[in-house]
Write a structure and sequence with these properties.
about 30% helix, 8-stranded mixed β-sheet, alpha/beta, about 270 residues
Amino acid sequence: MNLPDLSTQIKIVFFDIDETLIVKDKDYLPDSVYPAIEKLKANGIIPAIATGRSPCSFPPKIKQLVKEVGINTFVTMNGQYIEHQGKMIAKFPISPEKIREVVGFFDQQGIDYAFVSNECICISKITERVQAALDPLKTAYHLDKHYYEKHDVFQILPFYDQSQDELVANSGVLNGLKTVRWHEYSVDLFDEQGSKARGILTALQHLNLGIENAMAFGDGLNDLEMLSTVGAGVAMGNAHSELKAVAPYETDHIEQDGIYNFLLKTKLI
C-alpha cells in the first residue's frame, strides 16, 4: 500500500494500550515505541492515550512511558473520562440508580462483577473466573460490592462467558448501556452513547483541533468507532478482523514495530 504524506495534516495521535502499545500477556513493550513517541513530540505532534483501561490499571511499563516521554492527554475507560494536562475535561459516570438495577440482576443470576473508577477497581467476589480476567491486567483490585454508592463508576465488568450473552441481552437490564467483550470471561458495560470516539471528539474540541487532525492506532472491537471517526484510523496487523474491515489503514503487527513503521511511512516521524 502506498501511504500518503500526513505530516501537515496530523496534529495528535491517539494510542490504544493493550496489543497496540504493549503485548499484555507478555508484558512486552516494543523497543521502537519510545523513539516513535519522542519523535512525534519533537515534530510538534501530540501523543495521547485512548484506552478501555482506567488510569489506575495502566500497566507499569505504560505508566513509565507516560512519565518519561511526557504524555498528558488521556481518553480512558472507553471514552468515559477525558483528561488533559492533569485536568478533567469531561466525565460520563453511570448513575447509581442504573448500577443498582444492573447489579441486582447479576446477583440474581450468580454473575460476579467489578466496578471501575479512576482510582480503583472493586469486585463483588473473588473467584477463579474473576482472577483469570483481571490478574493479567497487573492491577490491584479490592472487594467492595457497595463501592458505587459513594463513588463515580464509569464501567461495570460483569464476569460471564459467551454462553450467557443472550440471557443478559434479553433481560432488558442493559437498556442505556453498551456491551463490548474484552475477555473470554468478561465484558465492558458503559453508557450506550460512550466510545473512544466520543472521548476523542471531546478532547479535540478542547484542543481546538479538527477530527481530520487526529490519527489513532487500535486493535480491538472497542476501537471500531475510534478508527472509523478520526482522520487517519490505523488497525494493527494483529487487530481483530472486524476492525481491519473498517479501518482506513492497516500497519504491521505490534511485535513487528507496526506503530513506528506507519508513522515513518506517513512522514510523521
